[in-house]
């Protein structure tokens, strides 16, 4: 039997042990599924992504959008193109729109403010996923109605973070995430699994950080090496290890919204379905319009690049129903419960 209290209390030695062996995987997955059902129910929320720019000023070693990549066809969507896409998403009945891009200074405070103001008229929640910006910008956008901010921390190992992000530090990323939390955003973090040099202890640190932040959203996906990056020849993260991290994150932060990520579906045809069975409760269909969608190439082999919008949404809904869950119809805000309700002692509690 796994010791659930040690997981919830982020006992680093115990988490490192669980992440070092496959002996307890099935039990971990079963507990995570029950925790999800108990604390967030059977609804799976849809968050539609608009990847509006693949320009990026950063140099992250793992990312296909990195500034040094000269093999990428760069694009920027106009404000009207973004708004047209947002209107379509609202018409399809999806209640959250995710505005995602590289760290692109072309989209100024004013441009993002305009987008937030116009999109909020569609009666949807807005998630921003545009990287590190000035603290004052976060404040302005929150006051205009932005609901959530997703900024994955990627790794909570300060040494590994520094290696992968030239000129940046984990402490700086933490400062941004805690400021977003202070301002009242539903704040999302998350990590990659299988990064070069990553150890089970490093992944245990990720879980401890997610609990420290009390992350409202947790995005966990496998590292997939991109041929146009310095890590092109490294091995990638496995489905098994990624599912285990998703499951442990569910136990550590029971009420968080956790997506079954596109990257999971990119390394296995049934990766997202398995993610939903291991504690995930969000799917993020990609509704970036073509011809832009294939050029947001964080990693190779990304799924759902050429599907028609309506077909993509219907496919996603069918996937959710196919694993016995329910398509959420609301905004999907994080459920608030008393911390005392977090107590889980055994499977079936």
Automatic annotation (TrEMBL):
Q: How is the cofactor bound?
A: Binds 1 [4Fe-4S] cluster. The cluster is coordinated with 3 cysteines and an exchangeable S-adenosyl-L-methionine.
Q: Which PROSITE patterns match?
A: RADICAL_SAM
| Domain of life according to the entry | Bacteria
Listed SMART domains: BATS (SM00876), Elp3 (SM00729)
Annotated GO biological process: sulfur compound biosynthetic process; water-soluble vitamin biosynthetic process
UniProt domain Radical SAM core: residue ranges: 42-261
Which residues bind [4Fe-4S] cluster per the record? 56, 60, 63
Q: Which amino acid positions bind S-adenosyl-L-methionine, per UniProt?
A: 154, 173
SUPFAM superfamilies according to UniProt: Radical SAM enzymes
Which cofactors does this protein require?
[4Fe-4S] cluster; [2Fe-2S] cluster
Q: Which keywords belong to this entry?
A: 4Fe-4S, Iron, Iron-sulfur, Metal-binding, S-adenosyl-L-methionine
Q: Which residues bind (3R)-3-methyl-D-ornithine?
A: 129
Write out the transmembrane intervals.
none
Q: Where is the signal peptide?
A: none
Matching InterPro entries: Aldolase_TIM, BATS_dom, Elp3/MiaA/NifB-like_rSAM, FeFe-hyd_HydE_rSAM, HydE/PylB-like, rSAM, rSAM_sf
Keyword Ligase assigned to the entry: answer is: no
Q: Which GO terms describe its molecular function?
A: 4 iron, 4 sulfur cluster binding; metal ion binding; transferase activity
Query: What's the name of the protein?
Result: Radical SAM domain protein
Q: Native species of this protein?
A: Fervidobacterium nodosum (strain ATCC 35602 / DSM 5306 / Rt17-B1)
């Amino acid at each position: 039997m796994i010791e659930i209290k040690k997981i919830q209390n982020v006992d680093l030695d115990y988490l490192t042990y669980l992440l070092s062996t496959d002996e307890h995987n099935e039990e971990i997955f079963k507990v995570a599924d029950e925790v999800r059902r108990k604390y967030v129910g059977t609804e799976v929320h849809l968050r539609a992504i608009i990847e509006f720019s693949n320009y990026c000023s950063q140099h992250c070693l793992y990312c296909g959008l990195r500034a040094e990549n000269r093999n990428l066809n760069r694009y920027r969507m106009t404000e009207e193109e973004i708004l047209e896409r947002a209107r379509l998403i609202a018409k399809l009945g999806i209640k959250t729109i995710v505005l995602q891009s590289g760290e692109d200074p072309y989209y100024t405070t004013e441009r993002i403010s305009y987008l937030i103001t116009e999109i909020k008229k569609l009666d949807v929640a807005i998630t921003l996923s545009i990287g590190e910006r000035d603290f004052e910008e976060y404040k302005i956008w929150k006051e205009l109605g932005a609901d959530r901010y997703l900024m994955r921390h990627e790794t909570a190992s300060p040494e590994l973070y520094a290696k992968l992000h030239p000129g940046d530090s984990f402490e700086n990323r933490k400062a941004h995430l805690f400021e977003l939390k202070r301002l009242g955003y539903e704040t999302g973090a998350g990590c990659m699994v299988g990064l070069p040099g990553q150890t089970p202890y490093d992944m245990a640190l990720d879980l401890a950080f997610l609990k420290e932040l009390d992350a409202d959203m947790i995005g966990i996906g496998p590292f997939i090496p991109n041929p146009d990056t310095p890590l092109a020849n490294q091995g990638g993260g496995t489905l098994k290890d990624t599912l285990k991290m998703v499951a442990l994150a569910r136990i550590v932060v029971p009420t968080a919204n956790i997506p079954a990520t596109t990257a999971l579906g990119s390394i296995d045809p049934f990766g997202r379905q398995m993610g939903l069975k291991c504690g995930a409760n969000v799917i993020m269909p990609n509704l970036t319009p073509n011809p832009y969608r294939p050029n947001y190439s964080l990693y190779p082999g990304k799924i759902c690049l050429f599907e028609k919008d309506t077909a993509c949404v219907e496919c996603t809904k069918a996937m959710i129903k196919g694993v016995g869950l329910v398509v959420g119809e609301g905004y999907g805000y994080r459920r608030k419960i008393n911390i005392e309700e977090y107590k889980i002692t055994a499977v079936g509690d």
